[in-house]
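for the recovery benchmark. tokens below, seq after
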């Protein structure tokens, strides 16, 4: 039996300032939307563009870093996995598809994540390194703040 592979890499712009909330056990979670666009020419040579919006979720230390650095309009590379979860609202079951971020790279010309975190004393490399995957693992569903 083969295993699956769930990896997403997006480059886009943040739609609004990230929203950071805390679970009942105090775990920070950041959410924001990311717009990605693709451009092409139709059969008549007319330029066309389509924008897709992605819901991004980051947990723990990465959520705290995002709160400090990311703003509306920031250009980011987001690496993570795609996840669909369900919840009930007004007695109706609903579904949401999200990108659970493992790593985020600030691409615009502003202060880098490394510089800002060095100034604030946070451990950027420990929060985002591949060896520390536990930072991206969400707590149990009953502990979600949304």
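predicted aa per position
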């Amino acid at each position: 039996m083969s295993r699956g592979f769930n990896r997403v890499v997006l480059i886009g712009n943040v739609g609004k300032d990230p929203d950071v909330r805390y679970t009942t056990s105090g775990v920070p979670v950041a959410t924001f939307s990311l717009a990605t666009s693709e451009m092409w020419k139709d059969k008549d040579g007319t330029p066309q563009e389509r924008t897709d919006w992605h819901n991004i979720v980051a947990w723990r230390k990465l959520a705290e870093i995002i709160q400090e650095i990311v703003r509306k309009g920031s250009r980011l590379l987001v690496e993570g996995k795609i996840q669909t979860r369900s919840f009930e609202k007004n007695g109706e079951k609903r579904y949401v598809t999200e990108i659970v971020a493992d790593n985020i790279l600030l691409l615009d010309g502003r202060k880098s994540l490394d510089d800002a975190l060095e100034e604030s004393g946070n451990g950027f490399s420990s929060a985002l390194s591949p060896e520390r995957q536990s930072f991206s693992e969400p707590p149990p569903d009953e502990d979600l703040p949304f």
